[in-house]
């Protein structure tokens, strides 16, 4: 592709990554597509400043999801964007982060292709990359980590999964959607061999004015999230790179305790 937004013709769906929240982190291509949309089907995490880039004539349809409540089931979202496109609209499916990283973008692309609808994907800065950058937290570092893994913290059979090897010396683990299951996640990682003293960061509401970056130990992850009343969206980062972040420590003498628990 030549990097330009293609001519937006009737019957087109474009999955657009809105990034972690800050509208200045949109790609030029994403901003151009949003500005020429007929219909925007957007997630609840998309910043209102990004939605404001839509034409006055565009219809905005929220399909916001939360852990306990979905405005529409995924099958219904698929049907919605396909129907709008078949009706002649240029549909922007606007998602926080990147459509293909825990964004269900693959399912939506498959639905469009099955219906014969032209579909395109414009990537966005993922939450992991954007939020880590804000916190000055390098996900890789020559002296600390040469591998990164992304996992979902809300999934069926969490305790049965084998996470051994995903976190530990020389590795960084980034957990999406893990606030509600943080204590189980910590227990699971420790059971799979990760030290209770492994540094952990929680990056809350990245890309927003009220964002926070907090740092603790793996053994205290669930306790800190409860004490600090951390709210979604938030990422959990596990690994030695956390010690290099610009984050607020939530345990006294952090490094001393880490050495004690290691």
UniProtKB/TrEMBL annotation:
GO molecular function per UniProt: uroporphyrin-III C-methyltransferase activity
CDD domains: SUMT (cd11642)
Pfam families linked to this entry: TP_methylase
Domain Tetrapyrrole methylase span(s) in chain numbering: 12-221
SUPFAM superfamilies xrefs: Tetrapyrrole methylase
Record keywords, A-Z: Methyltransferase, Porphyrin biosynthesis, S-adenosyl-L-methionine, Transferase
E.C. designation(s): 2.1.1.107
Protein name per the record: uroporphyrinogen-III C-methyltransferase
Originating gene: cobA
Higher taxonomy: Bacteria, Pseudomonadati, Pseudomonadota, Alphaproteobacteria, Sphingomonadales
Pathway: Porphyrin-containing compound metabolism; siroheme biosynthesis; precorrin-2 from uroporphyrinogen III: step 1/1
Superkingdom of the organism of origin: Bacteria
Organism of provenance: Sphingomonas colocasiae
Similarity comment: family membership: Belongs to the precorrin methyltransferase family.
InterPro entries in alphabetical order: 4pyrrol_Mease, 4pyrrol_Methylase_sf, 4pyrrole_Mease_sub1, 4pyrrole_Mease_sub2, CobA/CysG_C, Siro_Cobalamin_biosynth, Uropor_MeTrfase_CS
PANTHER family (alphabetical): S-ADENOSYL-L-METHIONINE-DEPENDENT UROPORPHYRINOGEN III METHYLTRANSFERASE, CHLOROPLASTIC (PTHR45790:SF3), SIROHEME SYNTHASE-RELATED (PTHR45790)
One of the protein's GO biological processes: methylation
Signal peptide stretch: none
Keyword DNA-binding listed: no
């Amino acid at each position: 592709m030549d990097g330009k937004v293609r001519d937006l013709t009737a019957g087109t769906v474009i999955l657009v990554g809105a990034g972690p929240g800050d509208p200045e982190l949109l790609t030029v291509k994403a901003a151009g597509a949003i500005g020429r949309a007929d219909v925007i089907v957007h997630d609840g995490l998309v910043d209102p400043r990004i939605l404001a880039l839509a034409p006055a004539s565009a219809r905005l349809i929220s399909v916001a999801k939360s852990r306990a409540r979905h405005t529409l089931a995924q099958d219904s979202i698929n049907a919605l964007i396909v129907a709008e496109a078949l009706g002649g609209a240029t549909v922007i499916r606007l998602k926080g982060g990147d459509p293909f990283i825990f964004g269900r973008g693959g399912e939506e692309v498959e639905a469009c292709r099955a219906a014969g609808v032209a579909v395109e994907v414009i990537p966005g800065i993922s939450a992991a990359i954007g939020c880590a950058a804000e916190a000055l937290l390098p996900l890789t570092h020559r002296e600390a980590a040469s591998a990164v893994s992304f996992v979902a913290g809300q999934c069926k059979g969490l305790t049965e999964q084998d996470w051994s090897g995903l976190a530990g010396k020389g590795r960084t683990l980034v957990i999406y959607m893990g606030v509600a299951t943080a204590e189980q996640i910590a227990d699971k990682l420790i059971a799979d061999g990760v030290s209770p003293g492994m540094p952990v960061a929680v990056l809350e509401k990245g890309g927003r004015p009220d964002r926070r970056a907090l740092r603790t130990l793996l053994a205290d992850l669930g306790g800190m999230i409860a004490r600090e009343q951390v709210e979604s969206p938030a990422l959990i980062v596990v690994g030695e790179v956390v010690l290099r972040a610009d984050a607020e420590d939530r345990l006294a003498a952090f490094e001393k305790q880490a050495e004690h628990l290691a």
